[in-house]
Design brief:
Layout: H1 8-19, H2 24-32, H3 37-61, H4 71-90, H5 93-100, H6 103-113, H7 121-137, H8 150-172, H9 177-198, H10 209-240, H11 243-249, H12 252-264, H13 271-293
Length: 299
Amino acid sequence: MRRSSDLTPAFAVAAAASAWGIYWIPQRALEDAGLTGGWATLGQFLVPLALMAPVALVRSRRGQATGLNLVLIGLLTGGAITCYANAFLLTDVVHALVLFYITPVWGTLLEIVVLRQMPARLRWLSLALGLAGVWVVFGTDGGLPLPRNVGDWLALAGGVMIACGTVRLNIVRPTGMFPQLFAYFVYGSAVAAVSAYLLADHLGPTPNGPTLVSLLPWLVLLTVVFLIPSNAVLLWGAVRISPGMFGILILGEIVVGMVSAALWSGESFGWHEAVGGAMILAAGLVEFLVLARRSPTPA
């Protein structure tokens, strides 16, 4: 039995996803320092993996779970972020964001078909508000954002994979945070490495040795302060809320991202951003309203 009315996981997911809205700041700093986009993606999987590997070795010797058996969860969750990050190298930002953030649709459909759970009626309202908000923010020209190139397909695949990953987490419900997180970085690193090989022409120049050495402390700091904690919270929350709700709550990244970019990088913030952001926030509030009103029910 789990308490569906427990708001803590929902708040945690919303907060962690919103924190990713300022992730562009260290990303741009790393790129300016010589670690171009694609190599930054790979580095931000490999550095956490290297830091966690000794702990996994100790756990293995003690007979404790390491997460290496969570292959599908790791490939889906880690691979989703790899696809999302690399999509920006191969298509325009608008299509990458819109196609990835159709995630709530896939999450809700999988919730119905795979988990056999019918969402509350208000879910359809939050779903409509969230998707419409994304549409307004990115100023679509009225047509459907159908995939046109490899980058578009990567963004779409990333959204589908993260939705499937949350469904798999809901089914398996692995015990302990470390195994889930280690699986994310192990198998995410594998996807990132394969992507680096296949997309070598789009990743930018390979950083030289001195550049890598000078940036390594910053990558370690970013890993310890942001990457490991935020991903741990997202994975923890994904087990405790429905896939459809997870997809809606992570839309908060868009709102924080556009506000922070307007404040600190001088990017425009007009009526598209204001109205769309308000709709996305309203979608999240509807989900919290559903949780607050729902009584405890069997999982």
